[in-house]
Structures are given as C-alpha cells and as structure tokens.
Design goal:
The structure is a single chain. The chain has nine helices and no strands. Helices cover 71% and strands 0% of the residues. Helix 6 runs parallel beside helix 8 and helix 8 packs antiparallel against helix 9. It has helices at residues 4-21, 39-55, 59-72, 77-89, 93-106, 111-123, 127-140, 145-157, 161-174. It is mostly helical and 182 residues long.
C-alpha cells in the first residue's frame, strides 16, 4: 500500500499540472518525476498524459511525448491513433489516414482507431469507405455514443437516412446528453 501512495500523489500532481498549464508549451513527461514507477507503469502514465493533452487539444505539448513513446514502443497502436488525431486536427488528412492504418494493422480490433479512420475518410470525402470502418468500430463498442453518432453521420453522408436515424437514436439512448453532431 505504501508504494501506491507516491503514485497517487504523482498522478494528482500531474493532473493538476495539466489543468493549470495545459496550453503553455511542451509539458515534461510526468512519469519521469515518479521514480517508484515500474517501466510498464511509466508507459501507462505517459499514455494517460498524452490522451489528456490530445483531448484538451494541447497538441504542441503532446507531440514530443508521442515521439518519445513511439521510440520506446514502436508497436503501440494507441500512440499511432493519437498521433493520427493530431494530424487530422491540423488538416493533414492523408498523413492521418496512414497513421490510423498503422494503428489498425497493429491492433485490428481497436474501435478507437477504426472510428478515427472513418472520420478521416469522411473528411476526405470517401464516405463509402468510411462507413464500414464506423460499422466495425460500433460492432466492437456498441454502447459508445460517439462511435454510434459518427456512424450515423457517415450513413447520412451516404444518403442512407433511415439507417443513419437508427444510429443517432442508439447514440442518444446510450447517452441522453449526446448532441448529434460530427
């Protein structure tokens, strides 16, 4: 139990640091400040930090951590998917597609990467190719309102309105707070 206390304190410190200073340039790898972490736990903390930075759209801070993570873990599908999100958000859609495909090749049953590829393909105007990716993601995570919503939007773009409506309804049933949007 004593070994977990520094980890909890370190996690609290890391989260507070993110909430206070997320937009202020590159963030240090918080896992380096926790010498009691095993290498595997260090990777877990780094992944959580990167995910938080990407969710907060602090891409400049996430990129160095992603690069370091991929140097240490070149077969980590989640890291490729997170990098793809950054590329997509920066308008580099072809590069994002490539990163999502790499992520999927490493972990074919990853709904996060499949759905991300679907969104990217829709942005590229490749709706017929996007919908099967969204459908595959929903099959793997049928209760995810975000995946259901994105699948519905892809079906809508293909003018499959009745099917799109069913996906939207499922998204709202899964999370009544869900706003139907892409």
């Amino acid at each position: 139990m004593d070994r977990q206390r520094p980890i909890r304190i370190g996690m609290v410190t890391m989260v507070l640091g993110l909430l206070i200073g997320c937009g202020g340039g590159p963030q240090p790898d918080a896992s380096e400040d926790m010498p009691d972490l095993t290498p595997e736990n260090r990777k877990t903390v780094r992944l959580a930090l990167i995910q938080t930075l990407v969710e907060k759209k602090a891409y400049d801070s996430a990129v160095p951590l992603l690069s370091r993570g991929l140097e240490e873990e070149p077969k980590n599908a989640q890291l490729y998917a997170l990098r793809a999100i950054i590329l997509r958000e920066r308008g580099r859609l072809e590069e994002a597609r490539k990163e999502f495909l790499t992520s999927i090749s490493l972990e074919p049953r990853n709904p996060f990467a499949l759905g991300g590829l679907g969104v990217t393909l829709n942005l590229l105007g490749e709706h017929a190719a996007a919908t099967p990716r969204h459908e595959a993601a929903v099959k793997l995570a049928p209760e995810s309102p975000k995946l259901l919503n994105n699948c519905g939007f892809s079906l809508y773009l293909e003018r499959k309105y009745a099917e799109a409506e069913k996906r939207y309804e499922s998204a709202i049933r899964s999370d009544p707070r869900m706003h139907i949007a892409y």
